[in-house]
Specification:
Elements (H helix, E strand, L loop, with lengths): L1 H5 L4 H11 L3 E6 L2 E6 L6 E8 L4 E8 L8 H12 L6 E5 L4 E9 L7 H29 L3 H9 L2
Antiparallel strand pairs: 1-2, 2-3, 3-4, 4-6, 5-6
Length: 158
């Protein structure tokens, strides 16, 4: 009983182990945070994982490595709203400090959950797929100053 109260479950340990096996670059920032760099179709992406023990909640973020030529927040926020309309899981946001778009999602985790790796795999696949799909659209708006609705046109023609 005493050992249980001293050793709290932390999914960051599982995430670190999972990505180490896949030979990805990881940086453990604290007991509750880890960053993983992965290769993407367009550019490398950073995956951030943060564990909030009080809520039993794992926050997952996927940073898209694109900074705007000139920050046009109304255009960026319009694009975020348009992209988020079609998402079932997670959402896109804009991290002002880094001046980059980011995909975010959170899940509640029970330490008795035996399929955590499966859940994480699903969410990571969704996050990476959505970031890969949105990268050219973000690029058009952030780097080429194309209007958000126009940047989305190729997506609607599919």
């Amino acid at each position: 009983m005493l050992a249980e109260s001293l050793c709290k479950y932390n999914p960051i340990d599982d995430i670190e182990c999972l990505f180490a096996k896949q030979q990805h670059s990881t940086e453990r920032r604290s007991d509750s945070e880890i960053v993983v760099e992965i290769s993407g179709k367009w550019d490398n992406m950073l995956l951030f994982f943060a564990w909030e023990e009080q809520l039993n909640c794992l926050h997952i973020s996927c940073l898209i490595n694109l900074t705007p030529e000139a920050v046009n927040l109304p255009s960026i926020f319009e694009l975020l709203a348009l992209l988020n309309e079609d998402l079932w899981v997670g959402y896109f946001s804009y991290w002002e400090e880094a001046q980059m778009p980011i995909f975010k999602h959170s899940i509640f985790i029970d330490e008795k959950d035996t399929n955590l790796v499966s859940k994480l795999s699903q969410i990571l696949n969704i996050a990476i797929t959505e970031c890969e799909r949105a990268y050219p659209i973000f690029h058009a708006v952030l780097k080429q100053n194309i209007a958000p609705r126009r940047a989305l046109l190729p997506l609607t023609l599919m």
